[in-house]
Design brief:
Length: about 900
């Protein structure tokens, strides 16, 4: 109960006090104004202030003094901060505090949590059920001569009507030796106010918390209960990362003949209760609280979640209340998606009739934003009485964006035909620092990724564009060789510690410049620069941008230059795909994540590294060591940004080799949905389809990846691998030879070529390739291929010697049990192979996913033991 509620406890709900006197709205407004102003004076000065302010109106002075006296009772029973339920607050000792071991009915006090002027909160245990609970009590001094006891029981009964996963449950209401108490669920976690104070949650997390709170309000309102003191301090994020609404202590039950939406003309509720900064204007005017008053408070909470600040504030309580009554909320940043800004705006309309009619509507609107359906919601989000004005504003804003994007200027008329394929050349490093080439390449990759994610174009990779550009003299030649309708070229500058990108779009058919633009911002706004380039290029080539994509581009976040540089260095090292480079990449990604734990790409990068280190080809280590790390980082990234194609693909990779087939396919399909131009997502999805013997679909996916990145060594090698497992060995050999023609040092392609040649019975060619491989690579994988060659040539004893050497190496370095199992299977020792396959199952080796298609196992497919293995892998 706040000071405002205490001052009204003698009010009968119709605007009349117990003594029959009426409290006119104008007079009540004067009383509140004087009270708030009096609070700014010290106690010795207040008397003089009141005499001067009230003059001969003694009754007015008495009413203000009564409010001041109520306020002097300090923090009430009902306003113990929700954060204190977490056990993080320990005030000074109080002689009236209940000692551990004290019994309140069936409950035993186990510890103290917090106290206010009207009561205390304790941890307790049900002596029969053993359940841990929190108990609120009222101090004896507060009970005497008041109606607190009756209020406590009544309000607890109202709150006990609520049973919802996002509402703190009420277990019991009781009284022991004249001491009333409420027994409620004990929540372990951290208050939302503390989370916001420590670090503003990322947008995706903020929307999830907001949805939880809206669902709690919806449940309460449908049962006729309004909260009346909703704020971030009364919301706890529990250990499962769910928002739980606490402290329905100020809650009131709506009359049974009033709908959950509330009808302010028929309510008969106490009016003035809650926390000033979150109070709706109608409460400050002395009107009755309704469900729409809660929606106002929810708007304040949502604003705080998005900005870390309150929409209305002042130097004094009087200024704060004046701002709530008459001022507009402080504008939200343009980086907050437009649809979300409109949701907040509608929640904070002064006239309650203009707000959402129910918490259900609010929750539905937020969920739509989370599903990226924002553009289609603009109509419903607009307030009816202001619809025409807001439409005009929207048209004006979008027009300004179209005219002033980055200061870009149109060089020539846009091509009459619509373009379908685009190549982005690496940005020229014009920073003056040759070591910053990785930064220019990283920004290029980011622009390519965003173009691929937000448009319906086919975007070629930087690697392929770079290779083609190296042998071409004109942009037209580059476009023709890649099959690109247009080519984007530009340069990166860093003037005065800022980031600038100059970019030009050139049509391939005639070399004509279609458009150019320049963008410059502070270094911490490099992501905004990238988004502006993407918008400019998309507009220039008439690319279709879905509404959700436009929203994402408009809400690019700021990022510390140190964080972004560490991330780009990590991506550069990751691209090398060697054990050493992946370890260096991990260090860079970890640095970025430590500097900014909310930067999702750093976590996705870590997941990619751990995934690769757990493969036989890279030879980093056991997947049982690395894959759980990859899963954890991918999930972290998705918790921060559920729209990260990279994180969905990384998680799909984990799930594929964990043999969670449906879950893996869902993640890969989501990654491709979010960015159809993400080559690796297509490759990894192709591998999953291949392991499931869905060869036609696998070929379609790997071909899609090849179309996007035709000169990628990884993708070309995977094309050969899919051809091999499809039974098309001749084509696979040709493909892998072409891959090595691109780069003869690419070890993975040569390993796969040796394996295909062996399977095709071309032993002399396989031996020649293996010899080249052993010169470049003396890894256990190369030794395994040598053993395979010996076995294929009929030298079983020599092959077994090499296998024993591999097993010996396993005592001091990682050797995949799947490699040994394959060798033993090739040598016809299936019993021993089964032993090693069991070990491969135990560590979740990648090779297990390919049991159904690996030719080594063809002779054993009729064996019941092998059929059992296939069933264990879910590959029947």
């Amino acid at each position: 109960m706040s000071w405002t509620e205490q001052s009204h406890r003698a009010d009968d709900g119709r605007g009349f006090r117990a003594d029959g006197s009426s409290r006119q709205p104008e007079r009540w407004a004067r009383v509140k104004a004087l009270f708030l102003e009096a609070l700014e004076y010290s106690e010795p000065e207040r008397a003089a202030f009141l005499v001067g302010a009230t003059g001969e109106d003694g009754d007015l002075r008495k009413e203000v003094e009564a409010l001041l006296a109520s306020d002097g009772a300090a923090g009430s029973f009902c306003e113990v901060p929700a954060a204190d339920l977490l056990g993080t607050f320990e005030p000074e000792e109080s002689p009236s505090r209940l000692a551990p071991g004290t019994r309140l009915g069936a409950y035993e006090i186990t510890g103290f949590i917090a106290a206010g002027g009207m009561g205390a909160v304790y941890r307790a245990r049900h002596t029969v059920l053993g359940r841990e609970v929190a108990i609120k009590t009222v101090s004896p001094s507060a009970i005497v001569g008041t109606r607190v006891r009756q209020r406590l029981i009544r309000e607890a009964r109202h709150a006990s009507l609520l049973a919802h996963p996002h509402i703190c449950g009420i277990h019991d209401v009781g009284e022991a030796d004249g001491l009333p108490f409420i027994v409620m669920e004990y929540i372990s976690g951290k208050s939302l106010s503390a989370i916001i104070r420590d670090h503003l949650p990322p947008l995706s997390m903020a929307l999830r918390y907001a949805t939880d709170v809206a669902a709690a309000l919806e449940h309460a309102h449908e049962r006729g209960i309004i909260h009346r003191d909703l704020k971030s301090a009364n919301v706890v994020i529990n250990d499962e990362d769910r928002a739980i609404v606490l402290d329905f202590g100020l809650a009131r039950h709506l009359p049974e003949n009033v709908s959950s939406a509330g009808s302010e003309s028929t309510l008969t509720l106490d009016s003035f209760a809650g926390t000033l900064t979150h109070m709706a204007p109608e409460l400050l005017r002395g009107e009755r609280a309704t469900a729409r008053s809660d929606i106002w408070s929810f708007g304040v909470l949502l604003y705080e979640l998005l900005t870390g600040e309150l929409p209305f504030s002042g130097r004094t309580q009087f200024e704060t209340s004046s701002a709530i009554l008459g001022a507009s909320p402080k504008p939200l940043s343009a980086r907050v998606p437009l649809a979300l800004r409109l949701i907040v705006e509608r929640c904070l309309i002064k006239d309650p009739r203009g707000r959402y009619t129910s918490a259900h509507e609010v929750r539905r609107a937020i969920n739509a934003v989370r599903r990226q359906r924002t553009w289609t919601l603009l109509g419903p989000l607009l307030v009816s009485t202001r619809r025409r004005t807001l439409y005009a504003v929207l048209v004006a804003v979008l027009g300004m964006v179209a005219l002033a994007v980055g200061g870009a200027r149109l060089r020539a008329a846009v091509a009459a035909q619509r373009l379908g394929a685009l190549a982005v050349l690496p940005l020229e490093n014009a920073t003056g620092d040759s070591a910053a080439a990785y930064y220019a390449d990283g920004v290029t990759d980011a622009i390519i990724a965003q173009l691929g994610a937000v448009s319906d174009l086919r975007i070629f990779s930087r690697a392929s564009a770079t290779r083609v550009a190296g042998g071409a003299t004109t942009v037209s030649q580059i476009g023709a060789r890649l099959g690109a309708d247009a080519v984007v070229r530009g340069r990166l500058r860093t003037p005065n510690d800022s980031v600038a990108v100059d970019v030009t779009v050139v049509r391939s058919s005639d070399g004509r410049a279609l458009w150019s633009g320049s963008y410059q911002r502070e270094a911490r706004d490099v992501l905004a620069v990238e988004a502006e380039v993407v918008r400019g290029v998309s507009n220039a080539i008439r690319a279709t941008l879905p509404s959700a994509a436009r929203e994402r581009l408009m809400s690019a976040r700021a990022i510390s230059p140190e964080v972004y540089e560490a991330y780009l260095k990590g991506r550069y090292e990751w691209g090398q795909r060697t054990p050493g480079s992946l370890q260096r990449a991990i260090e860079h990604f970890k640095q970025a994540a430590e500097l900014d734990p909310t930067y999702a790409p750093a976590h996705a990068g870590l997941a990619d590294c751990y995934n690769q280190l757990g493969t036989v080809m890279v030879r980093g280590g056991s997947p049982s060591e690395y894959r759980p790390l990859a899963a954890a980082e991918a999930i972290k990234a998705l918790q921060i940004d559920p729209y990260s194609a990279e994180a969905h693909a990384a998680l799909g990779y984990v799930l594929h080799y964990d043999l969670r087939w449906m879950d893996a396919e869902r993640e890969f399909r989501r990654a491709i949905e979010l960015n159809p131009n993400f080559p690796l997502a297509h490759v990894w999805y192709a591998n999953l389809l291949m392991s499931r013997r869905r060869m036609k679909q696998a070929r379609e996916q790997v071909d899609a990846a090849h179309d996007l990145d035709p000169f990628s060594l990884v993708i070309n090698a995977n094309v050969g691998w899919v051809l091999f497992y499809s039974g098309r060995r001749g084509e696979a050999i040709t493909q892998l030879e072409q891959t090595l023609a691109l780069d003869s040092t690419y070890v993975q392609a040569r390993m796969r070529l040796v394996g295909v040649l062996l399977a095709a019975g071309r032993l002399s060619e396989a031996r020649e390739q293996a010899q080249r491989l052993l010169v470049a690579d003396d890894s256990v994988q190369a030794l395994g291929l040598a053993a395979s060659l010996q076995g294929a040539a009929g030298h079983g004893d020599s092959a077994r010697v090499l296998v024993r050497e591999l097993i010996a190496r396993a005592s001091h370095q990682y050797v995949s049990p799947a490699t040994i199992a394959l060798l033993l299977g090739q040598l016809g020792d299936f019993d021993s192979a089964l032993t090693w396959l069991d070990k491969a199952f135990a560590e979740k080796s990648n090779a297990i996913a390919y049991l159904a298609v690996e030719p080594t196992w063809d002779p054993y497919r009729g064996d019941p033991r092998f059929k059992s293995l296939i069933a264990r892998a879910g590959l029947e």
